[in-house]
Amino acid sequence: METQQIKQRIIELQIEHRDLDEAIDRMAVQPGADELKLRRLKKRKLQIKDSIALLQMQLVPDVPA
Question: Which domain holds residue 38?
Answer without folding.
Answer: 3-59
